[in-house]
Amino acid sequence: MLQDFTAMRLRRSTFDGMTGKSLQEFDTGAVLQEQLDYYRERAAEYDQWWLRQGRYDRGPGLNGQWFAEGAEVRRALAAFRPEGRILELACGTGISCEQLPPFAGRLTAIDGSREMPAINAQRLGSPMVRYVAADLFRWQPAADERFQTIFFGFWLSHVPPERFAEFWNLIDSCLAPGGRVFLVDSRYQETSTAVDHILPEPSATVLRRRLNDGREYRVYKIFYDRHELTERLAELGWSFEIRETTNYFIYGSGFRASREAAHG
Q1: Are 172 and 15 spatial neighbours (Cβ–Cβ below 8 Å)?
Q2: 122 in Cβ contact with 185 (< 8 Å)
Q3: Where do the structural domains in the chain lie, given as residue ranges?
Q4: Which of 35, 74, 137, 246 has the most CB within a 10 Å radius?
């Protein structure tokens, strides 16, 4: 039986990853640039997080819990059955992307960096995947380009709160009639991140992340409660069913239910 480690607290390290600033005190553009720089520099070590290696190794018990919950999410994505023209936003190194080609008529994978998709392409080696390096806060689909399935993993939490509605408008503009969306993201759990990271309070929106060489960057990281996220999406005209694993992940699928709700 899997254990629930939610209540576990870590001893504070010398690295203070907390920030007490409010959202208004941050320059959104500056933080987003640091966030992009961080993920470009982190590309070569990114998979250590998912594989629980190096600074992310929490020992057999917690690592086993992590992998079991990751497998639960992967089964849910397979049961969702992505189809047709698929769009993946923030495709990263291909951890989730490798599940999509068997379902796809064509897969378009977009990332803000060039380093992440390069690793992704090497991992998948699939001619069905078209890679696009683009700023996800500026990118728009071609006028005649729509997708039956849109997927993004561990990306919504990096969207600034004030751009939440704008992001979902982008999703709407990309989705074909009858199309569906699948998302995966992080729950608030201290043991999900590196051993030298301390999470801020759940209400914080910006935190600091460290690379293996010690360099630090600010990134947006919003930990959504699944019920609150479902309600916020409903206010924008989306119908979602969002679930959570015992400790580490939220995931769910949905579709555009109403345009009237989005316009109040």
Answers
A1: no
A2: no
A3: 23-263
A4: 35
State residue 102's pLDDT score: 77
59: alpha, beta or left? (left if phi > 0; alpha if psi -120 to 50): left
Nearest to 181 by CA among 100, 80, 95, 258: 80
**How does pLDDT run across 220-255, given as a tens digit for each residue?**
999 999 999 999 999 999 999 999 999 999 999 999
Sign for the pseudo-dihedral over CA of 209, 53, 249, 183: positive
Please give the single-letter amino acid code of residue 162. Answer: E
Nearest to 165 by CA among 107, 108, 232, 105: 232
In degrees, to the nearest 5, what angle opens at C-alpha 254 toward C-alphas 118 and 72? 65
Assigned architecture for domain 23-263: 3-Layer(aba) Sandwich (3.40)
What is the rounded (10 degree) CA torsion for 191, 94, 174, 163? Answer: 30
